[in-house]
Amino acid sequence: MSMIRDLRAAVRPRPSLRKDSGSYDTTRDPATPSAVVDCAVYRDGARVATRAPLTPQEAMRQVRRDGGFVWIGLHEPTEDEFAGIAREFGLHPLAVEDAVQAHQRPKLERYDDSLFTVFKTVHYVEHDRLTANSEIVETGEVMCFTGGDFFITVRHGGQGSLRGLRHRLQDDPELLAKGPSAVLHAIADHVVDGYIAVVDAVQDDIDEVETEVFSPGRKGTPRGTDAGQIYQLKREVLEFKRAVSPLLRPMQLLSERPMRLIDPDIQKYFRDVADHLARVQEQVLGFDELLNSILQANLAQASVAQNEDMRKITSWAAIVAVPTMVCGVYGMNFEHMPELHARYGYPVVMGITVGLCLSIHRILKRNGWL
């Protein structure tokens, strides 16, 4: 069973460096005039060579005549472009509607003799500095139709290309010989590996925000950060969680429940995907709770800073009140005031005023108000 031992190595790309999301196709293949990015027949684990690109109908006729399975990849097809393929492969109208309209929740559904699976792909967006408007994660979708002799992928979004994955699978004929279920596992594993890479990058962003919130500012007190940055990061983590959490149950079903369309040798490896996905979900949920704590701490620091500023303003107002009171008293225009004609009245009053101000300043500074 060397194929099974090498399964993960065959479908997984090399680990990327931090925040390196790899290359992503943003458009259809320039040589393809329709939504069909690639269409190929696989027999005995090898791609059947053809002189010209096959249409889905031609590929399916070959499969019905000679065996094997067809793998069709589409990118953002319109309803009219997908209608012919849906009729040819007998796809359920509800699944077809979901695949064309996109913006679906990750799920696994069974329709007659096919499985319909929705994956949310997640891509980390590079940024020099986190701001209140930074986009951190970008999501796309991959819908998969798995049948006994066909596999159809419908991709939405400008990232999440499956071209590299297809090439890696074609380099492992023993794996492809297992049929469409091997392709479904490869895509699930590929998507979850993408989650793991994004989790590491988002973790670095959260660490950076946490350091900024609790880093010392004036007089050694935490200086805090813009609450808008934390809130934006929390929103992006929430979008990430919406992609990860609903997918856990479908992966568990694929790993635990026997299904006619899933090869038994492949099914056990969905358990590994489910385990990795559960770990990612725990990390994302932890991110959400940590950001809640960071946001509350930042707001508390802002409140403390405001109280400190108000104490300083009040302290200086108390100091200034002394000369204001003295000047107010001696600024009254009464003719008979006892100190007006004293020779040393002015220096004495000024000395008393300065002494009182210095005394009040010392008392307030000792109590931490200044």
Poorly predicted ranges (pLDDT <50, ≥5 residues)? 1-5, 7-33
Strand order of the largest sheet: 2-1-3-7-6-5-4
Figure out the total of helices: 12
Largest sheet: 7 strands, mixed
CA distance, first residue to last residue:
76 Å
Shape: rod-shaped
Q: Roughly how much helix do the residues carry, as a percent range?
A: 40-55%
Q: How many distinct beta strands?
A: 7
Q: What fraction of residues sit in β-strands?
A: 5-15%
What's the oligomerization state?
A: single chain
Q: Summarize the helix and strand pattern as letters.
A: HHEEHEHHEEEEHHHHHHH
Mean pLDDT: 82
Radius of gyration: 34 Å
Task: Please state the structural category.
Answer: alpha+beta
In words, what does this structure look like?
The protein has 370 residues and is of the alpha+beta class. Helix content is 55%, strand content 14%. The chain contains 12 helices and 7 strands. The chain has helices spanning 2-5, 7-11, 56-66, 79-89, 93-101, 163-170, 173-176, 180-214, 227-244, 248-256, 264-330, 345-366, and strands at residues 36-43, 46-47, 69-75, 107-111, 114-124, 137-147, 150-156. Strands 2-1-3-7-6-5-4 form a 7-stranded mixed β-sheet, with helices on both faces. A hairpin with a 2-residue loop joins strand 4 and strand 5 (114-124). The longest helix is centred in the last third of the chain and has 67 residues, at 264-330. The termini are far apart.
